[in-house]
Amino acid sequence: MIEFINISKSFKYKNSQIKALDHISLKIDKREIVAIMGPSGSGKTTLLNIAGGILKQSSGEYLFNNVPVEGNESEMAKFRSDHVGFILQHFALIKHRNILYNIALPLKYKNIEKKEIREKVVAVADSLGISSKLEMYPHMLSSGECQRVAIARAVVSKPNVILADEPTCSLDDDNKYEVLDILKKLNKNGITIIIATHNDAVARMCDRTINIRNGSNVK
Ligand SMILES: Nc1ncnc2c1ncn2[C@@H]1O[C@H](COP(=O)(O)OP(=O)(O)OP(=O)(O)O)[C@@H](O)[C@H]1O
Ligand SMILES: [Mg+2]
Question: In a designed cystine with 9, which of 21, 75, 171, 178 is the match (CB 3.0 to 4.6 A)?
Answer without folding.
Answer: 21
